[in-house]
Design goal:
Elements: H1 5-23, H2 26-43, H3 49-76, E1 92-100, E2 103-108, E3 111-117, E4 129-136, E5 139-142
Parallel strand pairs: 3-5
Antiparallel strand pairs: 1-2, 1-4, 2-3, 4-5
Pfam families: NfeD
Transmembrane segments: 6-23, 53-71
Membrane topology: Multi-pass membrane protein
Length: 143
Amino acid sequence: MDIDAWLWWLIGAAALGIALVVTAMPELGMLAVGAIAAAVVTGVFGGGAVAQVAVFAVISTAGIAVVRPIANRHRAQRPQFATGVDALKGRQAVVLERVDGSGGRIKLAGEVWSARALDTGHAYEVGQEVDVVDIEGATAIVM
């Protein structure tokens, strides 16, 4: 059975696509795009082996050169909006029950939270505003 070269390129592209899904490596996706381009050159334009390999190499390399910096930039970015307990850090709260190194209660974002002073030797009295510096479990650490 004689299979045309363009079909081999498509089989290679499919294998690279499967590997992309399994490994989540964007470089494999660019190699698959290069294989598809080589299949087009072979099937549509009748390009020889040198043209096929050249198109595959150029398209794959160009794709990787463009996609890798974009992927790295997105990977390095922090989320724009803090959610959950991260959104509560840095906010102000009002002391409802005296807060010291062993405990107390505050009103934070409309909810009552247990709290503890960051500085164990310092106490905050009822009505005083405090800053939330961290959340440990269900306890806000304040100063």
